[in-house]
Amino acid sequence: MLYHLIRINYICGTLIDKFYIMNIHEYQGKEILASYGVRVQRGIVANNPVEAVAAAKQLTQETGTQWYVVKAQIHAGGRGKGGGVKLAKNLEQVTEISENIIGMMLKTPQTPPEGKQVHKVLIAEDVYYPGESETSEFYMSVLLNRAKGRNMIMYSTEGGMDIEEVAEKTPHLIFTEEIDPNIGLQGFQARKIAFNLGLSGTAFKEMVKFVEALYAAYIGSDSSMFEINPVLKTSDNKILAVDAKVNIDDNALFRQPKYAEMRDVREENQIEVEAKEAGLNYVDLDGTVGCMVNGAGLAMATMDLIKYAGYEPANFLDVGGTADAKRVETAFRIILKDPNVKAILINIFGGIVRCDRVAQGVVDAYKNMGDDIKVPIIVRLQGTNAEIAKELIDNSGMPILSAVQFQEAADQVKAALS
Predict the structure, then answer these.
(1) Mean predicted lDDT score pLDDT of the chain
(2) Which residue among 139, 155, 215, 282 is the active-site one?
(3) Is 17 exposed, middle or buried (0-12, 13-18, 19+ CB in 10 A)?
(4) Where does this protein hold ATP (predicted)?
(5) Could you tell me whether strands 343-350 and 289-293 are parallel, antiparallel, or unpaired per DSSP bridges?
(6) Which residues are 2's β-sheet partners?
(7) What CATH number corresponds to the domain at position 94?
(8) Binding site: which residues?
C-alpha cells in the first residue's frame, strides 16, 4: 500500500491527475511556499543567458552566494539525471550552462520519450555551503490519501534519492502522518515528524516551523500535492525547501486567480490544450483506437472494450451532452491530430441527447471533413431514437460502420484493424 501511495505521489500521469490538477514550475511553487513562511532556496527565473547572468549578480548582492545552481524549469521530475541541473562556480559558467540548457529537449523518466523543451531556467543560490556540522537531506510531501479521505504528510530521512526505490526496497524508512480534516495539523504531529527525522535542538524547532508552514501552504493554495525533495538541513541548522513540485486542484482555480495565471500551456500536451479550449474533456494516451464518448463512466467502459478487443485506446474524449455536428467535427479533428490513431470508435448513450441527432452530426462532420478522415469509423448508438440513428448511419452512403451491442462494437474494431 505504501509503495502504491508513493507511485501516486511521484508519477502524475493518471486520468484523475490530468483532469483535476494544474502543474506549475519549481520557481512558482517556491513563491507559494515563501508566501506562507516556508524557508526556500532563493532564486530568480531567467529566459535567456543574459537574464541568467543578471540574476546571478542580483543573488550575490542579496545572499552573498558565489556559486549558482542553474535549474531547467519544466513540468517533470528527475531533471538532474537528465542534465537539467548544473552547478556554476562563476558568471562565465552561468552563461555557458544557461546557453546549453535553454532550448534543449530535456529527457527524464517523467517526460515523453522525445523530452520537453526548456524555455527558462532558475538561477538559485548555493545552499550547500561549508560549516562545522554536516548537511542532511530529507523527503517530504503533502497529499490526499484518497482511500481514507484524509490529507497526509509523507516523509523520509532518505531525501534527494529516487523515493520510489526507497519505498520499494526500504519501506521502513518512509513515515506517514495522517491529518484529521476536522482539526487540521496538530503541534504534536509536527514535533513527531521532526523527531522521526532524527533532529534535535535548533534544527528540531526549525523543522516544526517548516512542517506547519508547508501544510498551511498546501491548504491555503488548494493544492493536491506539495512534494519537496530535498528538504535540506543546512550546516547552520536552517531547514529549507531546495525543490518544489506542486499540483494545484484545477477545480479550485476559480477562487485562486493568482495561481491560475501561473499556468504554462507550453508545458502541456497541445492537443489537450486545444480540446480544453473547445470544451472537450480529452486526455492523450498511447494506443491506436480513438474514442469519442459522452459521459466519463461510459468512456472508461469503452476503453475497457477496446482493450478487450486486443488494442489500446489512443485517448479519453468525452464530448458531453451536446454532440451536434460542429462538436463532433471538432472532436474528430482533435482525435486525428494523433498520428497513431488507426480507427475511431464512437460510443454514445442517448439520454438527454437524441441518438438520431448524434448520428446526423457524425454524418455531417464526415461530409465536411472529406478526405481528412482516412481511418475506419465505428459508431455505436444506444438510447433515445437509436433505431432511427442506425438507419441514418447505414443509409448515409458514408463508409461508417454501425453497431448496436458492446460486443458487436468490439468485433467491428477488431475487424477494422485486422
Answers:
(1) 88
(2) 139
(3) middle
(4) 71, 78-80, 127, 137
(5) parallel
(6) none
(7) 3.30.1490.20
(8) 71, 78-80, 127, 137, 229, 243, 294, 351-353
pLDDT tens digit sequence for 238-269: 999 999 999 999 889 999 999 999 999 899 88
Per DSSP, 233 falls in state: E
Binding site, annotated residues for ATP: 71, 78-80, 127, 137
| DSSP-assigned letters across all residues of 104-168 | -EE--TTS-TT-EE---EEEEE------SS--EEEEEEEEEETTTTEEEEEEES-TTS-HHHHHH
Q: Among 233, 267, 301, which residue terminates a domain?
A: 267
Distance, in Å, from the CA atom of 126 to the CA atom of 208, rounded to the nearest integer, reads 24
The single residue of 227, 259, 272, 366 carrying the catalytic annotation is 227
Whether 274 and 383 map to the same domain: the answer is yes
Q: What are phi and psi of 150, to 5 degrees?
A: -135, 150
Task: Say how far apart CA 58 and CA 103 lie, in whole Å.
Answer: 24
Q: Are residues 78 and 20 in the same domain?
A: no
Query: Per residue in 307-354, pLDDT tens?
Result: 988 999 999 998 876 666 778 888 888 998 899 999 999 998 877 778
**Active site annotation includes 277:** no
Say whether both 250 and 290 belong to one domain.
Answer: no
Q: What is the pLDDT of residue 243?
A: 95
d(CA 151, CA 189): 13
Please report the pLDDT score of residue 56 as a whole number.
98
Is residue 125 among the annotated active site residues? no
Of the residues 267, 296, 325, which one is the last residue of a structural domain? 267
**CATH at 257:** 3.30.470.20
Residues 327 and 350 in one domain: yes
Tell me: pLDDT of 51 over 60: yes
CATH number at residue 366: 3.40.50.261
| 120 pLDDT more than 90 | yes
254 and 215 in one domain? yes
Number of domains in the chain: 3
Least confident of 86-100, 170-184, 189-203, 378-392: 378-392
**DSSP H/E element including 320:** none
231 and 95 fall within a common domain? no
Most confident of 28-42, 322-336, 373-387: 28-42
Please state the residue numbers annotated as binding site for substrate. 294, 351-353
Q: What range defines the domain where residue 49 resides?
A: 42-126
